[in-house]
Amino acid sequence: MSLKETLLKKINDREIIVGVIGLGYVGLPLAVEKAKAGYKTIGFDIQPHKVEMVNKGINYIGDVVDEELSELVANGMLSATCDFSFVRDVDFIAIAVPTPLDKYQQPDISYVRDSAIEVAKYIKKGSMVVLESTTYPGTTEELLLPILEQGSGLKCGEDFYLAFSPERVDPGNKLYKTKNTPKVVGGVGRDATEVIAAMYRNVLDGEVFEASSPRVAEMEKILENTYRNINIGLINELAILCHRMNINIWEVIEAAKTKPFGFTPFYPGPGVGGHCIPLDPYYLSWKAREYGFHTSMIEASMMINDRMPQYTVERAGKILNRFKKALNGAKILILGVAYKGDIDDYRESPAIKVIEEFHKYGSQVQFYDPYIKEFTEKGQTMTGLSELTAEHLKAADLVVITTAHTNVDYNFVQKNARFIFDTKNAMKDVKNRENIELL
Questions:
Q1: What pLDDT digit, counting tens, does each position of 341-389 carry?
Q2: Are 78 and 32 in contact (CB under 8 A)?
Q3: Is 276 annotated in the active site?
Q4: What superfamily in CATH does domain 227-438 come from?
Q5: CATH 3.40.50.720 segments of the chain
Q6: How far are the Cα atoms of 73, 196, 363 from residue 420, in angstroms, in the given order?
Q7: What is the pTM (predicted TM-score) of this model?
Q8: Which residue, 410, 359, 413, 365, is CA-closest to 390?
Q9: Catalytic: which of 82, 156, 242, 276?
Q10: Does residue 439 register a pLDDT over 90?
């Protein structure tokens, strides 16, 4: 049989052993779903504490069901390791490692490159390799393919298959999880696409879309998040204008939402957070320069969104001035440091950037987040309040809501706070609004 026929048979017979590199917000849920589908799965991570927790059946990701993880570990379907040589034992390798920006706001693909180098040492004939990490168009074919071929001596398309299939994890989403979110697969060659798509179809409930190439799949992922970045930038700019015009931007959006076609609501805030929306446009604009192209609209939205933490603090300063208070020395209470509501993820959170801005002005900052007790940023750890009391609220010169968690009693906040700057419209249902100002 051909490589394609052999792999399709092994996939359908559940004879494939799966490896997942990176056990974070993308990798661990993916590993769980692979194991649930009947494929023995081995997860890899460089952090020993994550590996230890997985092997003990202890969950640390909100979108994973604790009982499912512990059961899969107990019955031998899921395990974890820090030893890269595990690649020898697997047939399907998913790379789900971070792709951050460096200090110059340029793509840092070192985790992807390093993973590929290690995979190349151990990959065997008949393997499938899939990159799931969000990256710029061209990464799979320009970076991974030569590393894997040169390091292994194997030929892509003949000895192993390679593809890009972007992660679409949305932490905290009540409707769409890894299992039921549609998937896109773009392989190096038609056979790779068909085989790897077949693997995902055996694991996931969502539709699997077969792209014509990895570059299409890579660009598709960038488009998803650049689309959101641009529209959030538009709304943030309108929020600034509406404030000057004394117009409630939140009411404007509610009115616009009544149109049943041609409008998708986006909302303003103190910035954008998470691993994708704040980073992906930078990946695209960086790659575009290689082709002599300037992504002016995209970069404009990035500048607007990147400036929102500073704008938030400037607005806070004007509010404090009304009470004859300066930012320097002001007691600020931040409500929420997660990058969005009802999750414990603070990656690229605008709330943390807001805190940094307050610190620059000499403000005394405390935070409360029911999901996050402490965070570490730039090597510095900040511990939050263990509970939100009336005394904490009354002691603050200004309360700034930067994340809209649904398990916070905002009526209690309104009753006890001197003044509140609500950047997320979290207090929309609070009736007494005398001490509330919206972004």
A1: 999 999 999 999 999 999 999 999 999 999 999 998 888 899 999 999 9
A2: yes
A3: yes
A4: NAD(P)-binding Rossmann-like Domain (3.40.50.720)
A5: 3-212, 227-438
A6: 47, 51, 16
A7: 0.91
A8: 413
A9: 276
A10: yes
